[in-house]
Specification:
Strand content: 15-25%
CATH architecture of one domain: Roll
Shape: globular
CATH class of one domain: Mainly Beta
Helix content: 25-40%
Strand order of the largest sheet: 3-2-7-27-28-29
CATH superfamily of one domain: Urease, subunit C, domain 1
CATH topology of one domain: Urease, subunit C, domain 1
Amino acid sequence: MPKFPKAMQIVRTTALSVFMGAAAHAAHAETTLYINGKIYTGAAAGFAQAMAVTDEKIAAVGTTADIQKLAQNGARVIDLHGSTVIPGLIDSHTHALFGSLALNGLNLATPEKTIWPDEKPDELIAALRTFAAAHPTDKILFARTTFDVAHPPSHEILDRAIPDRPLVVHNVSEHALWVNAKMLALAGITNKPLPDASIDAGISRNPDGSPTGVIREGTMEVIEGPALALLTKEQKLAVLKKGFQYLNSFGITMINNATGSLAEIELYGTLRDQKQLTLRTRTAFGAVAAPHHLTPQFLKDIEEARTRFHDDWVSSNLIKFFMDGSSAAPWPPIYTPEEFKTIATELNKRGFKIMTHALQAQSVTMALNVYEQIEAETGKHDQRFRIEHGDRLTPADFQRFSKLSLVASMQPSFCCGPAPTDGTMSSPWRSLLESGAHLAFSSDWPCSWPPSPMAGIQQAVTRDVWVGRGYGGAQTGRTRNGEVNTPSERLTVTQALDAYTKGGAYAAFVDDKLGTLEPGKLADFAVLAKDIFTIPGTDIGSTTVKMTVVGGKMVYGSAP
């Protein structure tokens, strides 16, 4: 058995008393003992050997010898055989519906193989035709690939592949769609500009005014509405269920959706009521790069969501803002500072929490300015304002994260290209931690593929530079060039893991229930196939998950 720090003795002396106290209130409770493991608790105790789970909560953590004494009470015993156990992984920024659609659709952008339409249009057409033939009854088809938004491909390529049904191809960034003529017609997009010039601006058009088929940023709502309407509720539930099981396979036990609506949250509520929800969800209101407006319907929807959904499985009370886009560089601001402050201040007064997408350094600065103004006017309280991405940051802003107790919600898979030379820093994880910021890691699934926290931890530890078309790490077939982006910003394995566990729990206001493996907390954890604390950092990304447990129930894999 592995040796553990002396700090573990703290749990050893309390394991039995805590467990017996809990058992006294649960005569018919189901208890499972996990023994002979290397359990990273994430708490002051450090590592433990064993853990007792009663119903959905952790009852005791300690040595195998102590926990085995509880077996006489009829508990089930699972021998971990030395496997490493970690707290359930929290993906703090996903787009679960889009990811699930990509998983159920045709994915043409993976680390193994990516088809760029400008390089291999015929191969793309053949793949789409094969997929369409295999799904003859689907009213609409979805795919995922990468394409150059600045030089948009024509819908005629897609028409050659699928002329008879609507087809929606998501760009890997999720900030652009590429659709065929059938989908353009369904959405009412013609050679004539849309009445709202700000919405029409997101439609890529040829010199003669005809649409190319590429729709960018907030205008994607024009496509998404009629496209999703072609799916029945049962189809959406099936798609999401498969997507959640896929996330479970990576040890993910909770997600924070970075876009969503009342209708989407209701789907999660239905899965919960049917006892088919296999991970915990928190969903933010917002659509990609679309500005919010304080309309009566918007205020009604967010209030209804907060009132109806606020349990451990489905929750809301979160609003997502976009400071900039991602389909062009630089993307013009979506709000003026005055507009952002007016809307964010009102929502903050109503008790809603705020997360803000900001890729560019100037966008981050603008969001921080407004956060500071809100706090100055309302007084300091537990707001936990969030910055999403922050791929480029100005060093002068680091201390502002600490001052505001901000959450830096970042994606290791988006790092790293060559280090910037304009005075900003890319993904400065260690600097943010040292400044006192709260770091929460995520995948932004399906913007990164696969949504593996182990790959994210490896990238946080190594900061390898990736080159090739596309963005992010290995996705779209990119390769390492042997360089390292700012080695001083590397994290330890423990720091990176904490960002996927404790950091995610803090960001979601559930750190009293999740994020560490301690008595009284919910029993969400993953059993790994490798010991990520001892293997080389370059091997962490290939680590698989043997078993994922959510609320004391196994949702993926099998006992070691």
